[in-house]
Design brief:
With about 300 residues, the protein is of the alpha/beta class. It has seven helices and eleven strands.
Length: about 300
């Protein structure tokens, strides 16, 4: 999934005009400015790839609900980590409705978002899709195959703004510290959503066709620390995970995966998370690489005939 064509949301600049009239001998008191109206709470479809009952999505549900939003979980019935943008093509899909605000879809995150938009939010799309928070990071090559990011992409494809949330450092995730770090992840998510809805006013939360891939690092020995800052990033090109296959001699192969972390690219998501910063990468839902590569490809195939 290319990240090259999209830009971060434009920043709004607020200014106040200077008074140019001559002041009277005794200045009259200035009227107090009207208080800003709080942005309305959002209707949020919450999904993930770890399963509808995973700690990350349950914490997200509680935190976003506590922030005043109307949140509905529509997420996979079982763990779908690594499902990417997969969409099922089976003629029948199983969906459970164990709680009033929870739907569990026996499929991928993309299937869950598709069901949610088509049926749960039928005729009245949510204001935002939030996918996560994931157990572990989704940076560099991990993001390409991530079901968490895949759920966000499915929403953006359908014209709904989306944020993918992930929690984790760049080593093998520790269960306790990762779950602890989900709390500051979601504190930041609430601030980010507040920023989007205040800036959007009555318009869209994000530019058309744009989503955000947010990766929160693990800070502190217990994971409860505060990140060093926030960076606008892009997806680092490295794969991070290196698979190795060993022939068992019976037609099966043992699979081992190791972390192969190379020097991060400046400005990329790996660099930010490695420095203890929150990485916010704009994403889109297509595989286009931009005009330069389009021109290169045109030159490569010039003169070819069927």
């Amino acid at each position: 999934m290319s990240r090259k064509r999209v830009l971060p949301p434009a920043m709004l600049i607020l200014c106040t005009a200077a008074l140019t009239a001559t002041a009277p001998a005794v200045a009259s008191p200035q009227a107090a400015p009207a208080p800003a109206r709080p942005a309305a709470p959002l209707r949020i479809l919450l999904t993930n790839d770890d399963g509808y009952n995973a700690p990350g999505i349950r914490k997200a549900f509680e935190r976003l609900t506590a922030a005043g939003h109307d949140v509905t979980i529509v997420a996979p019935l079982t763990n779908q980590s690594g499902a990417g943008t997969k969409m099922s093509n089976a003629p029948v899909i199983t969906v459970k409705h164990p709680e009033s605000k929870v739907w569990a879809v026996d499929g991928s995150p993309g299937d869950s978002v598709a069901f949610g938009l088509s049926e749960v939010f039928e005729g009245d799309a949510p204001d935002l899709v939030v996918s996560g928070t994931n157990f572990g990071p989704n940076v560099a090559g991990l993001a390409t195959h991530s079901g968490t990011v895949g759920g966000a992409v499915a929403a953006v494809e359908s014209g709904v703004p989306a944020i993918a949330l992930s929690t984790g450092g760049l080593s093998v995730p520790d269960p306790v510290t990762t779950v602890n770090a989900m709390d500051p992840t979601l504190d930041f998510a609430v601030k980010l959503i507040d920023r989007l809805r205040v800036r959007a006013k009555s318009g869209p939360l994000l530019p058309k066709g744009v989503g955000l891939n947010v990766n929160h690092p693990i800070v502190g020995a217990d994971g409860k620390g505060t990140a060093a800052g926030v960076s606008t990033t892009f997806q680092d090109a490295q794969t991070i995970l290196e698979p190795d296959f060993t022939d068992s001699g019976d037609g099966t192969w043992k699979v081992d995966v190791t972390v192969d972390l190379r020097s991060p690219v400046k400005g990329g998501d790996v660099e930010a998370v490695s420095a203890g910063r929150i990485a916010v990468s704009p994403i889109n839902a297509n595989w286009n690489t931009g005009p330069a590569d389009h021109a290169t490809t045109s030159a490569l195939i010039a003169g070819l005939r069927p």
